[in-house]
Amino acid sequence: MTGGDPIHRGRDAFARRRWADAWAHLSGARANLGPDDLEMLATAAYLTGRDDDSADAWTCALAGHAAAGQPDRAAFCGFRAGLVYLHRGEAARAGGWFGRARRLLDAAGQDGVARGYLLVPEALRGLAAGDVEAARRLFGEFTAVADRFGDRNAMAMARLGTGQALIAGGDTGAGLALLDEVMVAIGAGEVSPIDVGIAYCAAVLACQHAFDLRRAQEWTAALGRWCAGQPDLVPYRGQCLVHRAEVMQWRGDWPDALREATHACRHLERQPASGPALALLGDLHRLRGSFGAAEAAYRDAGRLGHEPQPGLALLRLAQGRVSDAYAAIRRVLCETGLPALRARVLPAYVEIALSAGETPTAGTAVEELGRIAAAGPTPLLTALAGRARGHLLLATGDATGALPCLRESWRYWHNLTVPYEAARTRVLIGRSCAALGDADSAAMELDAARRVFRQLGAAPDLAGLETRAPGGLTRRETEVLRLVAAGLTNRGIAAELFLSERTVARHVANIFGKLGVANRSAATAYAYRHDLAGPDTHNYPVRPGP
């Protein structure tokens, strides 16, 4: 075979990861391709965004292997064809190909590595449905098959799935250890080009679920380098942009994060992965105070079947629609079962519940978040759990107990280089100092937070610092305090504000805690000292958050 032979040139281009050239050469010689070369053609087609051509080439490769008496290789090609459609969101067509691959193996009575791969769709369905035990069992069976046949690529993918299932179930340490093994296999060149992209994206997502910011950042950078080294690559670039934007958001690079998220939405248009990209775009708009743009992004994500929570509930909170925010976040938490996913909802639940005066339910959420953080400790999750506990203690009047939790949380955020969350924690530290009568320390903490919010462009948080009523009271609490100062009982306040007496009692307890007072007389005196007893106190703007 000469150097000018298109098949030879196609193989050479494939070996050098020049996917467009490999596609061009191999497709031009398609009539003369054997099943192995057809697999190369299918891979090159997929990696250059030609999904239909890829599925067609996998089909032809399946037929070639079957004719050559290689049912395991044929079934693997059927699995790959199904995977093309699964990634496009066409579950029915994907299921048809997986079924055909199983029948090939059953008809031949052969046990091969393809049987392990064919367990993956069912395992992924188990993960999506929250059935972690079923997913772990199926990925465990895949691992046994891969090890038995010594297939390095299958070993890596089986361990990837097992790691995902362990993290989803709360066994973070064991899950991350398996993902580290997968990254080693990628570095050793043991993983196929299609599966490298799948592994990177799945591993980064799992790290985000585990709140492991360091690994997420490291592997996102590795995914970016891998994509950059293959200019023809079409899949994975959009997911890479989403992951990059998420890391940038944590690091405080909001303008760059917004640019990357917008680019990702365009790149992933009409693809299943565009839902998370839109939700991230909504989060960035919300943090910057562009509430209309945030609303539109969250709704677009929802239309694509992606849950836009807790971002949408936090948007409602920022808009002052506390009841709507609480109803939404309560519904989401009720529907969320896996510990890793509940941990992503619980911090927002605590913040919203405290703003709604639902202190007991906030306390329950704080305890659960603490248990999850203790079971799979990472610095980021520990920081979230500590801040939630400090916020609860402050809201219930224990500013002394709140300060150690909040200061430890701030140290974690500071060491992680997460400026926004560090600044939000300093706001709570400042409020705690104010409740203890340390006005100078409170002012320093709030000034430091103010500078960060201004640098980031966190307009809602900045406005909240500038307009919050004395004592850190929300608008509703200020209204309740005004009526307490007017001499109304809880029943009278409930009638005035159309609230239940139980809710008023919670607001009164929260007010006592924030102001550091023990009774209604002391609260009334505070209200008169700070000009909160007049008829205009209800004009304080809503800022329910910290």
TrEMBL record:
<dbReference type="InterPro" id="IPR016032">
    <property type="entry name" value="Sig_transdc_resp-reg_C-effctor"/>
</dbReference>
<dbReference type="Pfam" id="PF00196">
    <property type="entry name" value="GerE"/>
</dbReference>
<protein>
    <submittedName>
        <fullName>Helix-turn-helix transcriptional regulator</fullName>
    </submittedName>
</protein>
<dbReference type="InterPro" id="IPR011990">
    <property type="entry name" value="TPR-like_helical_dom_sf"/>
</dbReference>
<dbReference type="InterPro" id="IPR036388">
    <property type="entry name" value="WH-like_DNA-bd_sf"/>
</dbReference>
<keyword id="KW-0805">Transcription regulation</keyword>
<feature type="domain" description="HTH luxR-type">
    <location>
        <begin position="466"/>
        <end position="531"/>
    </location>
</feature>
<dbReference type="GO" id="GO:0003677">
    <property type="term" value="F:DNA binding"/>
</dbReference>
<keyword id="KW-0804">Transcription</keyword>
<dbReference type="GO" id="GO:0006355">
    <property type="term" value="P:regulation of DNA-templated transcription"/>
</dbReference>
<dbReference type="InterPro" id="IPR000792">
    <property type="entry name" value="Tscrpt_reg_LuxR_C"/>
</dbReference>
<keyword id="KW-0238">DNA-binding</keyword>
